[in-house]
Amino acid sequence: MTSVETRSRDRLLAAATTLFYERGFLATSVKEITQACGFTQGALYNHFSSKDELLYELVLDIHAELERHTIRERANAGDDPVDQFAALVAVHVTAHCQFRERSRVGNHEYRYLTSSRLVGVLDIRRRLRDQLAEVLAAGAAAGAFHLVSGSATGTARAVLDMCGLISEWFRDDGELTPLAMHRRYVELALRMAGGPPEPPHWPVLPEPPQFPGVDDA
To answer: Which is it for the CA torsion 154, 160, 163, 168, positive or negative?
Structure first.
């Protein structure tokens, strides 16, 4: 794929993200996506076989990049499960603060994928949950976490649900900055896990995952 083709593909993905965020996948037409890019309607089919495939590629990109980012930040956090937990929560918070449109599309519109395509996305979502649960279980075994439910998986799911709601209300011009959100949500997540009031080492505000297209406004 040439650089021009890559830029065109990324523009289509970025336009689709905004339109799916504003109207939903079902209410958005191929014509509306291509018009938003200044392309002819047929231009979309140079990159995607259908609107369904575009949604799949978009949602897969969102989830795969988030997973890569969590793996990297967990490794950078060292061996302490509390530090690893804080680092993972910080990644999710940063993504939902700084890429609200992509986060909401990733969290809501994936349900319109066909069953064969949905499997891959659900696998990544499961791995993201299991990654957090693994850290919680390690922390509980070390006495760092005291899980009220006794279930690392249940607590991981609750933490991810809490972080996922950020994209529903967070605004750049609001009173809370991404750094303040990152600290607040790490503290909340630690309480949910029955952990210490703060991690031994606060994670540096992570760089947000990199997605195709322009940044969210």
So the answer is: negative
